[in-house]
C-alpha cells in the first residue's frame, strides 16, 4: 500500500514538474517608428522547430514551450532579420523586438536563384524582390506589366495581359515575335507555369496576379542556367502567400477603374487563411474581373478569374503542403495601329494611338473544321472570346529534416491546360484596287472580276458597289454608286482559331547535406508534357476604320448568278489561309549538383552543374486544299468554301533529343555585415521550342533537329546597405549564339503564307544594372533602378524571300555589327514614396530609351516616358482606400514595330532603301496602353 502511495506521489510530482517546465511566450514586433509589424515570421529552434506569424498589432505567441535554451529567428520582407539565443526558464514570458528597415531586402532570405534559401546579401546572384505592397501599387494589367518594375527587365505589355514579351540582358532574339518568354521561366511557387512554348502559346496565358500572390522574386541570368528547366535567361517566381497564423485572417479588395476612352473595369479579390488545428494551416483565395479593356472594342476585353488554395501540415522536421489552382479566364490581345511619317510616327487613317484597337467586332460563325469535313465538323468562332485559358493544377510540396544534417525537399505538380484562341491576326490596309482583296476569297479559284458589292453584315445594308474589271491591267477599282468604303479599303485580317491542349507533370527533388564549411545540394528535375495544337485561319472582310464592321461581299455581274464571296458574317476562304494540326510529347530530365563552400567567414564559393536532356517526339499533318466542284456545300454560287485546307493523311514525324551541360560559378566576398562583392561566370543552353517543328516544316518532312542556343554570361556586382541608402549594381556581359531566325512571309501572287529558311546568328550585350533606395527623411523614400547597355548583332544575316515563294530571286542580307533591335540602351524607373500615419503616396517615372525596330536598323522607336501615381488612406485599422493612376499624362509611346502596312508584312522587310523609296507609306506600330485610373477598397481582418 505504501508502495502504491509512493508511486502515485511520484507520478503527481513528475506531472507537476512537466506542467511547470513548460512556458507560454507572447511578444510584439514593431518598426523603428513603434508601428506594429504584421506578417513577420518568428521561429524557435532547438531540436525541433516552432514558428508563427505576427498579427495585425504585431503580436505573436507560442504555447507549451519546454524550458531550455532556444534560438529565436525573426524575419519580415523589408526589415533586417534578428537571430539571438534566449533562455526560457519561467512560466510566462513577454518579448518585444524592434526591426530595422532593410531598404532593398538585402538581408531577406530569397528562394529563387539558390538551391538553399539564402539572404540576398550573401548570394552571388542578381535577384530583385517585389513584395505585396509593391504589387498593390501596379495597375492590374497582367504579368508583364508588373515586371516592368524589375531592374534590367525589358517588358512589352502593349498587347494586353497576354501575348507579352519579357527578357533581360539582350537575351532576346527568339522572343521578339510570338513567343515573348522564350529564354526565361515564369514560375509559381518554384515550378514552371508551363513546360512548353510555341506560337501564341506562352506561360503568361496561364498566370494571373491577385491577393494570393505574396511576393515576386526575379533572377536575371546567372544561376538560371542551373536551376531552371531550359530557361537560361532568368526566372520570375510568383510566390503565394503562406499563412501560419493561429487565428483566421484575410483580406478583401474591391476595385473599379476607368481606362482609355471611358472603358470600365470591375474586379474583386479575396484571400483567407489560418489554422485548422493540430499544426494544420490553410490559405485560399482568388479573384474575378470584368474589364472593357484599355482600347475601344464592341465586346468585353477580359473576364473571368482564378481560385487558389493550399493546405499545410507542419511537423517537428518540416512541412507537407497540398496546393491547387483553377483558372477560367477570357482575355484578348491588341494588334497594331497604322502610322505615317518615318521620322515622327503619327497615327493614320483616322486611327488613334490611345484608343484604336482595330479588332473585328463580335459575331458568331461556324467555320468548317478541315480535320472533320466528312463528318460535317465545324468550329464556332467569335472574336469576342479572344483567348479562353483554362488551367486545373494540383501539387504536393514537402520538406523534411532527415537528421545528421541531411534534408530533402520535393515539389511536384500536375496540370491540365487549354488555350483556345478566337481572335484576329493582322489588321493591314488593303486597297479595294489591290488584287489581294479578291484573290484571298478562295486563292483565285475562281478570281472574282466585275461588280463587287459590300453590305454591312448585321443589317444587310449595301455600303458600296464597285467595278474591279481593270484590276489585271493596273487600273483602279471604280465606285458604281454613291456609297463608298472608309479609306477606300478593307482590312486585311484573318479569323485566327487555335486550340492548344497540354497535360503536364513536373517535379524537382533536392537533397541537402551540410557539413563543416560545405552546403551540398543535388537532385533531379523531370517534366513531361503531352500537347497538341490545331490552327485554322480564314480571310475575313471588314471595313478599315476605327470601329470595323464586318462585310457581306458578293459578285453581282449583270445576267449572271450572284456569287457569295463571303458568308453572312463576312468570313471568306474558309480554313484556307492557315492550317496546323500537330501533337508532341516532351520529356525533360535534368540532374544537378551545387556546392556552397564557405572558404572563410567572408568568402563563399558557389559551384553548380546541370545536365539536361530534352526529347521532342511528335508529328505534323500534311495538308492540301479540299477541292470538289461547288466547294464543300456543292453550291457553285458560294465561293468562300472552295479552298478549305484539310489533312492529306500523310504525317511528318519528328523525334529528337537535345543533351547539354550547363554550369555556373559564383563568388561572394563579404566586406562588412551590410556589404558584399560578388562575381559569377555562367554558361547556359536553350533547346528549341516546339515552334521549330510546327512553323518551319509546313507540309514538308522534318529532316533535322533544331540547334541548341548557347548563352555565356559574366557578371560582377556590389550590394550594400548604408544608414539611409541601399544599392546593388551589376556589370554584365552576355553572348547568345546559334540564334535561329525565320521570317513570316506572304506571297501575294499565290496566296501562300510561309516561313523563310532558318538563319543562325550571334548577339552580345555589355551593360550595367542597378537598384537603389534613398531615405533622406523618415517618411520619404526615393527608388531608382535601371540599366545601361550596348546590345549588338555581332554576326547576323536575314533571308530575303523578295515577297515570293519562288526561291530564284531570294538572297541573304548581312547585318553583322548592327545594334540588336528592341533592346533600349537606357531604361530606368525612378519613384518617390511618402508614408506617414494613415497616408501613403507615390509617384513613378518609367523611361524607355530609343530602340532599333529591326536588325537592319532602318527605323527607330523613339524613347518615351510613363508616369504612375498613387494615393492611399487608412480609414481604420482594417479598412483602407487607394487611388492608382497609370500613364498619368497619357504618353504616346511606341512599344513595337510590325513592318509595312500590308497583309503578311514583317519588321525586317523594312530597309533603308524601302523607306527612301516609300517616304509616305504607312506602317504598323504597337503603342503603349493609355491612361487608366483605379479605385481600391481593402478590408483586412
Automatic annotation (TrEMBL):
Molecular functions per Gene Ontology: siderophore uptake transmembrane transporter activity
Lineage, highest ranks first: Bacteria, Pseudomonadati, Bacteroidota, Flavobacteriia, Flavobacteriales
PROSITE patterns, A to Z: TONB_DEPENDENT_REC_3
InterPro entries named among the record's database cross-references: Beta-barrel_TonB, Beta-barrel_TonB_sf, CarboxyPept-like_regulatory, Plug_dom, Plug_dom_sf, TonB-dep_rcpt-like
Domain TonB-dependent receptor-like beta-barrel positions: 326-888
Family of this protein: Belongs to the TonB-dependent receptor family.
Leader peptide range in chain numbering: 1-21
Keyword Signal: yes
Predominant cellular place of this UniProt entry's protein: membrane
One GO cellular component term: cell outer membrane
Alphabetical list of Pfam families matching this protein: CarbopepD_reg_2, Plug, TonB_dep_Rec_b-barrel
Membrane topology term: Multi-pass membrane protein
Domain TonB-dependent receptor plug: start-end pairs: 121-235
Location in the cell: Cell outer membrane
Keyword field: Cell outer membrane, Ion transport, Iron, Iron transport, Membrane, Receptor, Signal, TonB box, Transmembrane, Transmembrane beta strand, Transport
Protein name: TonB-dependent receptor
